[in-house]
Amino acid sequence: MKIDSIGNPRCHLAECPLWNETEGGLYWTDILEKRIWKYQPDENSIQMEWEGDLMVGGFAFTADNDMVLCTHKGIYHLSRTSGSENRSALTLLFDIPLSADERFNDITTDPKGRILAGTLNKRRRDGILYRLEKGKEPAAILHDIGTSNGMTFSLDLRYFYHTDSHARTITRYDYDLDTGDICDPQIIYQGLEANGAPDGITLDLEDHIWVACWGGSKVIRIDPEGQMLQQIPVPARQPSSVVFGDAKMDALYITSACEGCVDLDKGIDAQGRYLGGEVYRIHPGVRGRKEWRANF
User: Fold this and answer.
1) N or C, which end of the chain is more exposed by having fewer CB within 10 Å?
2) What is this structure's pTM?
3) Domain spans in the chain, listed from the N-terminal domain onward
């Protein structure tokens, strides 16, 4: 299976790739450099969409193509109205109390437009998963997470999958779409150190989960019970997340990061290993599901 780099400027910590079907473009955040990037495959163009003083750990699009940013200083609405004086204007939506070393790290939306957003901190034991809904106060639905990471839902929406990269686990919860409540946790995937830590995840239309393996130089595909079906090598040590995109939703985009490198320009560590920073694309032979818009 051929894997290609899209040729983006090297990112320090590329994360949370998201396909915008109305624009036909891929977006992702470089958390540590406080930037959001956009790739337009039909034009083969890459541009910086946003730059500021917020570490954006995850974002979602709204119905009118604005963005909701989950950052180390709270949850913000980003106006993207074309030609408006308010374009790129930020409005605080939720002032969530975060510790000095805490930030959001990956999010997802559900069909009702809720956002589920998880945090991490340097202690890697006090992360929280929040449920964000329009007109309601943020609700903490999971506590004591090591590194809250990738999330998705089963095709029938009965289950919610959540990744804790520090524990190397993906846990399946029963999901109540009416309330957004989760219950009955079942660990379906326990990663081995040799495979790296499960990071960002996404679902294909065969109800299988694609997992970026941080430190493992690979992306894997697992079934709903956590059985590994496929491994795809990635030419970077730190793949960080995955999402389907392109017009037919048949391309899998893979972000990667050079966090921890000794040379940002080269993206290598002290042992000379290439960590990453590029965004890659493959065509795995299956299609993905479109992400839902946030209702804010």
Assistant:
1) N
2) 0.97
3) 4-282
Q: What is the DSSP string of 56-119?
A: EEEEEEBTTS-EEEEETTEEEEE---TT-TTTT-EEEEE-----TT-EEEEEEE-TTS-EEEEE
Domain 4-282 has CATH 2.120.10.30: yes
Q: What is the pLDDT of residues 111-149, one digit of tens each?
A: 999 999 999 998 888 999 999 999 999 999 999 999 999
CB 261 within 8 A of CB 269: yes
3-class secondary-structure state, position 194: helix
- Could you tell me the sign of the dihedral formed by the alpha carbons of 176, 182, 184, 188, in that order? positive
Question: Residue 79's beta-bridge partner residues?
Answer: none
Q: What is the pLDDT of residues 17-66, one digit of tens each?
A: 999 999 999 999 999 999 999 999 999 999 999 999 999 999 999 999 99
| 282/253 Cα distance (integer angstroms) | 7
Distance CA 176, CA 223 (A): 22
Q: What angle do CA 126, 70, 235 make, to 5 degrees?
A: 85
Query: What whole-number distance in Å separates Cα of residue 232 and Cα of residue 174?
Result: 29
